Predict the 3D structure of the following.
Amino acid sequence: MPELPEVETIRRQLRSEIINQTVVRAGSHESQKFLPAREIKGRRFTELSRRGKYLIAECDDQTELIVHLGMTGQLLIDGGEQSSTILDQYQRAWWSLDNGKTVVFRDVRRFGRIAVVNKGDYSQIPTLRDMGPEPFSPELTGDEVWRRTRGRRRRIKTQLLSQRLVAGVGNIYADEALFLARINPSLRSISRPQAQRLLDALRTILSEAIERGGTTIRDYRNLEGEGSNQHHLKCYGRAGQICLVCASTLRSRVIDARTTTWCPQCQSR
Ligand SMILES: [Zn+2]
């Protein structure tokens, strides 16, 4: 599933293509979850921002087109260099712009979502409404992360995946950040120093992944192709292999239905 670095990579690549462009045609799959895509016809995009794993395209009439890529969602540009390679039965929505290009939302498994809301009104999208701070927010401190974990009874891995502790982290970067911060994913409470290490680790892991264009394991593609962060993962998906820090064997278990990998030595309780 695309996480913060993948969505941010797409945002940076897509932004210059759509800013100040007017949607001259809009279409979608008949499914209810993609129908809102059609409402955007006639509107002009004024900004493309990101909140957690959501892309938010602001329009000139004070509305926002919100796109969540789900598990397999991709945003692609047709009419550009990739033309003709992307139009297939998995195309769920599209917006033709007055520069002659078309933004295509392709989603094989259809866990993605499209919504159109009044600017800033996320009452119908609870995950977005209740989202925690952006990990790169300059106001976010280790103490604030610690404060937000206090009194929570869920495991730190689950808290990360919930989007309420910080925004944008999924299974890949949760495992990578907890490994770098030397925090056991099963812990239900963490210390102040651990919270600071976790925030530092998240910023390191996420910014490196953005620089590498994201992690391409299954379906994720950015506008220029595959990311390269998958070649740099130290923990996620490496259960049974040797820890690159201490040479112990990495272990895995399921925490809240998600496979979690950790080093029993570096991330001991
Ligand atoms: Zn280790």
Observations:
- The longest helix spans residues 192-211.
- The chain has two domains: 4-129, 142-262.
- The domain at 4-129 is CATH 3.20.190.10 (N-terminal domain of MutM-like DNA repair proteins).
